[in-house]
Amino acid sequence: MKVSTKRLLAAASLLVAVAMISTGCGGSSSSSSTSSGPTEVKIGIGAPLTAGATALGQGMVRGAELAIEQANASSTVTAAGLKFTPVSGDDQGDPKTGVTVANTFASDPALVGVMGHLNSGVSIPASKVYADKKIVMISPASTNPALTQQGLSNVFRVCTTDAVQGPAAADFATKLLGFKSAYVVDDSTPYGEGLAKAFADQFTANGGKVLGTAKTSDKDSDFNALVTKIKATSPDLLYYGGVYNAGALFAKQAKDGGIKSPFMGGDGLYDPKFIELAGAAQAEGDFATSVGLPTDKLPAGQDFLAAYAKKYPGQDPAAYDAYSYDAANVIISAVVQAAKSSGADKVTSPAGRDEIIKNVAATNLVGVTGAISFDKNGDTTNKAITLYQVSGGKWITKALPQ
After folding, report:
1. First CA to last CA distance, the chain
2. Do 242 and 172 reside in the same domain of the chain?
3. Most exposed among 249, 281, 303, 346, judged by the fewest C-beta atoms under 10 Å?
4. In angstroms, rounded to a whole number, what is the distance separating the alpha carbons of residues 13 and 56?
């Protein structure tokens, strides 16, 4: 499914005023704070911070903390009798570690929402822990369709899925770029496998030929034997389902090994670290798709970029900073609504947690990444996918959604 860029921008423009009020960026409330002071409500941030795709994980923390800082400075949150506190959990991109982080979050009675996780392989098992404690979870980045197909009412995501991104990448590859053959590799994670399969299926349906497939590990660092095998097939394109930390090494070794075909992957590659690790010369001409529109193409994006630059001078947003900002704001808005209707002191109760989940499910606002609402499974209704290409050592926009 593709979304018209003009229609998405129009929707964002119409809803921007609603978002400013809902997320505490403006407006006022008739609610009053309690005489004993504001109620502390914690939001967990689950992300890889010391291992795995740390550039993406650290960006998630920045995006969420910016949203929380702005919310606490707003009259809306103050009048609701609330104060939000971010709590980071380092899941290291590892499912077992992620579950440990989830259990730590779940043991805190003041924590009612989680902005996370990055990796689908972490989000899926962690989501079950949150469901048991009625903690709403909104992922800014986990794209495997299985996450929201578990029948859990507390699970949402503001990014679209691999069932959308993979086929969109294949459409770009065949219809826009004219590639007729591809070799497809994945990193054996739920994210990489799902994305690679969705790409390969659509690439074949479009008349392209998949010359071969291979499985690697997200911890691999030596791809030379696989490069030799792929080179013998002479593909037009080398497609990789995985994240930049292993993907960049694969791309570099592919170029160094004589494969002249461009390297292509999904949102897991779309980070400056991919170019840095692969080397600007080797990465030149490579492609990545990513969910949504470029931040600077949306009306609310300019305000976000200005606020981001002020809080994090000299730091460019990573791929999911804006999605994390939006996910945190959705949680904040849901908690504020619950506080207004039931009282700030009730938001951490079982009934308050149920109300927060219900409010998130009914979300209808605009964020930095565009219009935000969820279907019955908790998936975003924003299906836009953008194509990027490395040029001159930077990711540039190659094609917007049609």
Report:
1. 10
2. yes
3. 281
4. 28
Residue whose token pair is 């054996």? 188
Beta bridge partners of 367: 370
Question: Among positive and negative, which fits the CA dihedral 133, 75, 61, 38?
Answer: negative
Query: Could you tell me if 171 and 272 lie in one domain?
Result: yes
Q: Are strands 39-47 and 111-116 parallel, antiparallel or unpaired?
A: parallel
Is there a single domain that holds both residue 150 and residue 29?
yes
- Tokens for 232? 């013998």
Per-residue pLDDT reduced to its tens digit, 339-381: 999 999 999 999 999 999 999 999 999 899 988 999 999 999 9
174 plus 84 within the same structural domain: no
Which residues lie below 8 Å from residue 299, measured CB to CB, with a gap of 6+?
Answer: 9, 12, 13, 16, 366
Determine the Cα–Cα distance for residues 178 and 346; give it in Å rounded to an integer.
57
The tokens of 332 are what? Answer: 């904040």
Residue type at 25 in one-letter notation: C
Does any domain span residue 388? no
Query: How many CB atoms neighbour CB 110 within 10 A?
Result: 13
**142: Cβ–Cβ under 8 A, 6 or more apart, which residues?**
117, 118, 119, 120, 122, 123, 124, 157, 159, 191
Output the pTM of the full model.
0.87
Pairing of strands 111-116, 136-139: parallel
pLDDT at 345: 96
Could you tell me the pLDDT band of residue 292, with boundaries at 50, 70 and 90?
confident
Question: pLDDT, tens digit, for every residue of 230-286?
Answer: 999 999 999 999 999 999 999 999 999 999 999 999 999 999 999 999 999 999 999
Per-residue tokens: 64: 């969420």
> In CATH, what number is assigned to the domain containing residue 286?
3.40.50.2300
Residues 6+ away with beta carbon under 8 Å from 323: 63, 140, 141, 158, 159, 291, 292, 369
Which of 72, 75, 59 is CA-nearest to residue 116? Answer: 59
Q: Is 258 left (phi over 0), alpha (psi -120 to 50) or beta?
A: left
Any idea what DSSP says for residue 295?
G
- Residue 143 — very low, low, confident or very high, per pLDDT cuts 50/70/90? very high
Answer yes or no: do 274 and 195 share one domain. yes
Note whether 9 and 98 are same-domain residues.
yes
Contact, 369 vs 322, CB < 8 A?
A: yes
pLDDT tens string 27-56: 333 333 445 789 999 999 999 999 999 999
